[in-house]
Structures are given as C-alpha cells and as structure tokens.
Amino acid sequence: xxxxxxxxxxxxxxxxxxxxxxxxxxxxxxxxxxxxxxxxxxxxxxxxxxxxxxxxxxxxxxxxxxxxxxxxxxxxxxxxxxxxxxxxxxxxxxxxxxxxxxxxxxxxxxxxxxxxxxxxxxxxxxxxxxxxxxxxxxxxxxxxxxxxxxxxxxxxxxxxxxxxxxxxxxxxxxxxxxxxxxxxxxxxxxxxxxxxxxxxxxxxxxxxxxxxxxxxxxxxxxxxxxxxxxxxxxxxxxxxxxxxxxxxxxxxxxxxxxxxxxxxxxxxxxxxxxxxxxxxxxxxxxxxxxxx
Amino acid sequence: xxxxxxxxxxxxxxxxxxxxxxxxxxxxxxxxxxxxxxxxxxxxxxxxxxxxxxxxxxxxxxxxxxxxxxxxxxxxxxxxxxxxxxxxxxxxxxxxxxxxxxxxxxxxxxxxxxxxxxxxxxxxxxxxxxxxxxxxxxxxxxxxxxxxxxxxxxxxxxxxxxxxxxxxxxxxxxxxxxxxxxxxxxxxxxxxxxxxxxxxxxxxxxxxxxxxxxxxxxxxxxxxxxxxxxxxxxxxxxxxxxxxxxxxxxxxxxxxxxxxxxxxxxxxxxxxxxxxxxxxxxxxxxxxxxxxxxxxxxxxxxxxxxxxxxxxxxxxxxxxxxxxxxxxxxxxxxxxxxxxxxxxxxxxxxxxxxxxxxxxxxxxxxxxxxxxxxxxxxxxxxxxxxxxxxxxxxxxxxxxxxxxxxxxxxxxxxxxxxxxxxxxxxxxxxxxxxxxxxxxxxxxxxxxxxxxxxxxxxxxxxxxxxxxxxxxxxxxxxxxxxxxxxxxxxxxxxxxxxxxxxxxxxxxxxxxxxxxxxxxxxxxxxxxxxxxxxxxxxxxxxxxxxxxxxxxxxxxxxxxxxxxxxxxxxxxxxxxxxxxxxxxxxxxxxxxxxxxxxxxxxxxxxxxxxxxxxxxxxxxxxxxxxxxxxxxxxxxxxxxxxxxxxxxxxxxxxxxxxxxxxxxxxxxxxxxxxxxxxxxxxxxxxxxxxxxxxxxxxxxxxxxxxxxxxxxxxxxxxxxxxxxxxxxxxxxxxxxxxxxxxxxxxxxxxxxxxxxxxxxxxxxxxxxxxxxxxxxxxxxxxxxxxxx
Lengths: 292, 788
Hints:
heterodimer; A: alpha+beta; 3 domains; four-stranded antiparallel beta sheet; B: Aldehyde Oxidoreductase, domain 3; Aldehyde Oxidoreductase, domain 4; 29 strands
C-alpha cells in the first residue's frame, strides 16, 4: 500500500518543530526513526497532513550523566542504546532490552523517544522506564515539564503527551549500590514483540531486598508495574520462598486478556514462569551495575 | 553452510556442486522482476477487497472514485462479463467434482474476506488507492462457513447457491479388506489437525498486461512459474489467438507452487488492458498476498493402523477432510492436495489392506491449493505418527519397526494399495544411513542422561516417498491444458557459443544452472559458453515449466537429448570438413577432437564455417546448427523418490517452547546434477516444513477474518530459530531416462514436519502427554502438558 499524500518539513531545532506543529492547520506528526510511523502511513492507519522530521535536531541526541541521573536524548537510536558504555554501566537493563528490540536494521533507525511516545505495551523500553523509575522530559509550546514514567503511560498507545508536545529526553536514575537488574522476554522468534517481557530492578542490602521495581511488557494496556509482587519481594532475602511468594502475588497485579495470538491463561502462566526465572537469575547476581 | 561435495561418479559438470551463474546478478541488485518492468502509458491497478468473508453484494457506487485525480477507470464485475468466460476448477479424472464458476470480479456475492470487488485503474498506485477510499459498496453480510467440520454439518450455510452442500469432491480408495486385517490386531489411531499456511514468496505476485489492439496482441509480464499455462488461459478465456498472446516471466522471486494458479487479479488486469488498450500493472503488497495468495494444507485426518504382535503393519484406514476455500483453484484444482494425501499414506510400507476417504469442502476462506510438497507432509506425518505409536505400543525402536516393514529391495517394481507404481526406492539404505549420520545410539544415550536432569529432548524420524517427473497422468488426462513434456532449442552461435532456450523456468532455485551444466557436459563445452534462456512463451519452446519436481528430471533429460542432437550436427559438419567419419570424432573443451582427444578444429571454426562459408560444405550436409528436442516421460507415470528425515528437539516444559536442535536428511533423488543446489533445495524445503511444524499458521476468526495477515503476526521461520541441517545422498537413478534424475525440490518439505511431530511427541511421552496439531505452538504444548 501507498501512504496518502502528506507535506514534509525537516526542522533544525525543537523550537522550529513546535512552531511547525502549531502552524499546521491539519494533523501533524513528528517523524524520528519512522519505524512505526511509516508503516502506519503506508497501511493508511494514519494519514497526517504534515510530517515534521526531527531526525537532525542535534539537541535531541546524546547520552550523558547529569547529576544523579543519566540523560538519554530522545533521538538515541536503539543501536546506540545497545552500544553505549554509559548505559551499560548505569542502566544495564536498557542494554539487555535493546538486544531484544527487533532486528539490526530497525535498531539502526528506531529511537528511544519514538518507542516511548508510541507507548506500545508490547515493546521493551516503556517497561524498562517504569522499572528504572525514569523521568521523561517533555517539551511543549509552554516550556519543559518532567513526568515520571509511572504517570507517562496512561492507556493503550496513550501517554501524557498532549498534541504538539515532544518527548525530548529521558532521565534515568543511576543504578544504586546493590542494584540487580535483568531484562528478559519470551517471544516465538528472535526480534518479535514479546509474548511476555520483564524488566526487573531490585536493590539488595545486607542480604535483603530493599527495593523492587518490576515492569512487564505485553500483559496489559500499558507497560505494567506489579505492586503486590514488588511488596512480596521487599524486606526479605531473594530466595526460593520469596520467588514462590512473588509468583503467587503476580495474580493480584496483572490479568491479561485473551487475544488473537495467545490466551489469557497462557500469557499469565508465561508471566509467572518468566518472573520466577528472572528472580532466580537475580538471586545469583543478575546484570552488573556500578555503584552510583 | 557446508560446501557440498561432488557426487560420486561426477562428470565434467553433471554431479558437480557448482554455484548458480545467475546468483551474482541477483545479489548485485541487477534482477529484473515484473514490478521493475515499466512500459510507456502504463497504468496501475488497485483493488477494493471485501471486508466480509461471506456477503451479498448490493449497490456499488463508484462515482466519487471515478472523479478522483489520476483515475482512468473504475471496473466492477459486470464490466468483465462480455470480455472473459468464467473458469471452473475441476478436472474430469476427479469423478463427481464440482466447483462454482469464477469470474474476475464478483457480481452477486463475495465469498472470502479479501476477495477483490472493485478495480481502480489510475496513473499511480497511490492515486488508485486514494480512489478506493471513496467507493461505497453495500454488503449484506451472510453467515460464514469457516471450520471444516462445521462446513459439512447439515445446518451449515451453503456457499455455492447452486449446490446441495459444501462438499466439492469425495473419493474413496479401497484395497484388500481392512476389516479383516484389523480383527485381532493391535490398533493405534490418530486425529491430526494441520493448519493453513502460505507461501510468503520474497517477490509477491505481480502482473503487467499490455494489449495492443492494432494487432490484437496481448503481452503479459507475470511473476509465474508456468508461462505456457497462462498463455493458454488468457487466449482461451479472452477469445484471443494463442499465437498473439505472449507471457513473459522475468526474474521470479520464489513461487513454491503459489504462482501457478490463476488469480482473479490476473484476469482483471488482462481484462482492464483489453478495455483501456493500455498497459496495466498490479503488484500485490504483502497484506494482499496474505489475503489472496493460495493457502496450503488445512486438513483434519483421522486414521488408524493395525499392527500384528510381531510388529508387522497390516492395514491403515484414513478419513481426510480438507478445506479449500470457496472454490477449487484453477486450472489444477484444489483436490490434488487431498488426493495425494490419501494415495501416499502408508506408501513406504508393505501393506495390502488399505481404505481411505477424502472429502474436499468449501469454506469462506482464501483458496487452498498446491504448495510445495502437495499433500506429502500430511501423508508423511499421518503415516509416521501411526508407525511411531505402533512401535511404542509394541516396545519396538522406531528404526526397528521401519526396518521390519519397508517395501524391500526385492519387491520392485512395486505397486502400492493406492495404485502408485515404484520403479525402485532405497528405503532401507536411507534408513541405515540416517542411523549412522545421526549417531542414533549416542543421541538416545544423551537423551536418557538429560531426562534424568529434567531436560526433555525428543528424537523423531520420518520416511517420505515423493512424486516427481509426472506424466500426463497428473493433469493432462483430466483435461487440463498443462503440458507434461518439455522442449529445448539449442543452437551453436556463429561465435561457437551455445544458446539454450528451454521450457522449464527459474524462480531462484537454479533451474538455469543445472540446464547449463547438462548442456555443457552433453556437448563438451565450457559451461561459461552456455547461455540458458527461460520464461518467455515467444522465445522458448512450449512445455510444462517448473512444478511437481519435474525441472531436473524432465527438463534435464530434454536438454541432454538436445545436446546430443546438436553434437551430432556439429560432428557431421566437422566430419565433412575434416573428411573423417562423424563416429570417430568427439567434442571436448569447445573443440572437435579425434577419438584420442586430439583437437582438430574449434567449435568457433565449425560455426564460422557453417554460418559464413557454407559454400565449403558438401551439398548434402546441412549448415543448420540449431536443433529442437522435446521429451515427455513414457515409462512410469511418476518417478518416485524417497528419503528419511531425523529431528532432534528440546521441549521447555514450563514455557512450551521447542528448541529445534538439529535436523538430518538422507535423500535419494536419483542422479544428482548439482549437489550444492540439491542441498539448498533440501534445506529450504526443511525450513518450510519446520515453519509448518512450529510457526506458520493462517489463523481465522469465527466470522472468517484472517487474524494474522501481516509479516509481524504471521511467523515465517527465521535463521535464528532454525537448526543446522545435515544432508546425505543416496543415488538410485531412474532407468526411464538417460540422465536418471528425479526431483528433489519437495523432499525437504515432505517429511520435516512429520519428523518434528514425532520428535516433540517423543519428548512429551515420558510426561504422559502428546500433541496432534500443527503448528506445535507453545500454547498447544502447554495445553498438551495440562499446564494451562
């Protein structure tokens, strides 16, 4: 299929992008890596009047430590996320997740901001941001605002972004001392959307779990936290009993629906299996993260 | 990929694992596919497709679309009525078969979701799609026939209003007395379900029709494997002179049987070109491919096997129900798939008592028809699952029960209970070779050791017998205009090079490569000096083209005999000049030699002489250096091949995921012309079979909607999930031809899913579980394990 005709404008700055959006009489879309937007246009699922190409805005690029967090520009390509030593050191869960994201050709173009703005609950980065407790930096006509990841993802493909606003960066807290992180997903084929995915971010101190943040992919309309499960893990050693308790508690947190490809029962079962396996891995150390 | 060794007894070229000469061109992006062809004044077509699986057609309002920018014409079913006669997908040798007449676009109702309803012809494809958005069609939705069991229920809606029910064809095969054979025997049974999958060719279907009214001449560029068949169809159904219809298949990016059926869009595009007197192109996008390319399989097979206490297989009874969509496909019918299932079940074994029922039913789904290894994977999986169950019942090893029951080497020629005649197979040789190739005892020991650690591995084997080199017994006797012969025109050019025009076609598998090898060897010339031309009805002789594993066996023999004829011509001319007897001369390395191999004159000198100085030839010696040869097999109706697959899998019993660890194939396609290409055929076929076993499935909702018609939702097998595939060969040449080659293109697909089915069941068996549905998805395995 061919996309409906649209206007195209490449901009050099965020301000120019926002102006172009505001000046558009019809519907406008920001175009970054285009890995979801362009197929949607070709399938005529979306037919904006104007595409504003933000792909060359330098201010949207870059990965750097800013104070107690890692600032990741919205135009960071998935391939850059995968390769970044800073991300590997301070938010290794993102390095792990990037390896699961589609295929190299898509990773070379797809961006951090694009994936988070689309908010597909089956994709990896939204779940990671919730697990990491990241803050999303949103720039709009009235300035910059910061939204916690837990508040950003509101419903299926719905976020805190209002029309005209742009996600410009994410701020990820540097991994705390005692952090144990793991991202894993179950998919039929390498690179497919997850049947279930889990970003787990635990902190252990003196043998006890002091903090647990879990972000699940593909189990609900948004990337899902699992508060009852997190509570079941907190304040105790990460041992077999804790894992059993966590698996049991997961039923209070998520209740996936049947869909065309997988029954609710199978998805719930796989979520429990994945949780148990990730926690077992974390019990043995999980991904290395340097102390903050 | 491992390099294939040359075959034992390889000649100068035949038997050598040489790369395809055309591969470099395709990899360099120099391929020229139908969609690359751009003609002056060419227009583009797009189709509005039915959103309903079954609906009555009301008013179609195209007025707004006709007024859209760039739109030249909007066509509906009525526009084609005067142009094109309808087509019916039956063959006379399938007694009692019926199927509703088909037309380019429907006039009364739509019968599957995705059926083309309205055609827009515009200056660009995008403009045509813009116009589709403003067409209003009044559909009155009807109850859809979806499930193949429900399609046969008395209360089911009937798709074809002129028919009593949804059954298109029934047949029964009966040999001996199964009733008496089952009495007192151990009985094992299966109820196996095989989902639909589809070809997913890298190049989708594409057709570009160019009608020139000044000569009433139609040229069609088309991504097809059978240009001669389409030449006949377009001429007959549009009332054109066949000699004025030219079908050109340029580079074709895969076909797998999918591109030899007539599609409604093909006829609509040809009709539109006739109406507009301009070239009209249609290229299916991926969504359209899923919604309109033929699907494969869709069977429910209930079968039972009687086995004696000593492990002797006695009899099989089969009931196969297959769902084929609203019509039987044209011109080959959708009954061949099921017919081959019921005729191939049990084929490798010494059985005398056999009964099989086949029921072909209509449904409101995409048409199901011939796809690589037509019917074979179903027959193989049913047979080999039954044999494994019998082995398990009697405590026999899977190798041992096969060893005891195969048709033996002293039984050839052998006729199966279903009437297939085998010239000679190598069943026991292949079995023992696989046993060694897998190192079966070591695998069993490893399996037992791992089971003790809670790791569940399974080993499965599956024997196949494959139909290749078909004679007119396949289609011609049923009235189809589908040739079982091939033709080859071979010429020595004035520069002493060789041009070979042949009727088999190339879709990426290397047909042209092997023909070049055969001709080069047959003539005694360097292969680089042989140019092979295919895929154009005007420049190549008519013939059967490429399907049913016939290219190497029939096309190859045609080329070999043509090369013999041309060689004789060359030697006659050379002998006249050299004043020698032709019988004392030979051709080696592009030169005419004496019997000792001493060069006497080059082929360039012979050709120069014949073309430019024919005055030097004696008057009774013709200067002709072009020969034609046609060949059709006259011996056995089919050249049957055989082989066996082995599969090693590991089942994660917590997730239901299967890791395919390794796959082995021992195959016997007779004389191997190019072992590298045979191995590639086998590997590609195995991957398609494993796709059917684990990944690929066209899933439908209750109202007949295809739920996963996109590349993100339909899982084609990818390299990461595929195992190493180890291949070995046994060569039993057919004596029906000098070349001795049989087909190999479907051998990989025929048994890989059956071997995988047995392997997964072997892994599940100690857990008291079993699975009987393909594809074996994680969810189905979890349900088999009673985990969910």
